[in-house]
Amino acid sequence: MGLREKKLGLIGAGNMGSAILEGLLSKRLMTPASISVFDKMTEKADELARRLGVDPASSNAELVQKCDLILLAIKPQDLATVSAELRSVLSTRHTVLSILAGMTLAKLAEFLGRQAVLVRAMPNLGARVGASLTALDGTQAEAIALAEEVFSGCGKTLRLEEKHFDDFTALAGSGPAYFFLLMESIEKKALEKGFNADAARLTALQTALGAALTALSGTESPADLRKMVTSKGGTTEAALETLEKNKVRDVFSAAYDAAADRGRALRGG
Questions:
Q1: Does domain 175-266 match CATH 1.10.3730.10?
Q2: Least buried of 17, 25, 63, 217, by fewest C-beta within 10 Å?
Q3: Could you give the CA distance from residue 64 to residue 95 in angstroms, rounded to a whole number?
Q4: What is the value of pTM for the model shown?
Q5: pLDDT per residue over 177-198, tens digit each?
Q6: CATH assignment of 3-163?
């Protein structure tokens, strides 16, 4: 059974869950009539339902009873509470797609029971503009293929062994924030140098966009492109020497490890 024959229920109407639904609908992979949504903050679910034309459910249990494909988009810390509502209504007809950071398939089965088919997914904020990269792994190949259809609505997908998920979360799930921090620092410096607010913002964002599109458009590696921009004795070389002197690579490496460690901590392992 393909995605168009499924009823999808979103549990958690936050930024990521909303972005995934918007992608599904904008690419016409599903219709509003085939989607239900529930959030413990009912006003969020109601607002999303009004905006997208989907069905607001009155509870997690009602949503699961209506749907056969469940997108779990809550905070990992809320899993114990939500799973207590779901265990008794999940069955073998259900596929659960979880985007919870740190929560392994085994941990999900511990909370949700082993009736439903489980898929673990890790998208990123690029889903808002159809440019996410979502890693996928699951207990059944057919369910992973179904998840690929769902997440193709918000970008590209990547099948990845679950043992790599904590590192993928640190690198790609959290990754947009690292680039936003760099944009923020460029914007701040431009403001300090007297740029007006619009010029400072454009300088940061267009520079980042140009770098990303350049990297995507050719076959050169990021290292090769960095070397292309770096003329001997030039301004870029001066900047990069300062970054290297301050061990920027070590700082980022430590940041990635901290994010991965936090993912493991979220599941208590």
A1: yes
A2: 217
A3: 10
A4: 0.90
A5: 999 999 999 999 999 999 999 9
A6: 3.40.50.720
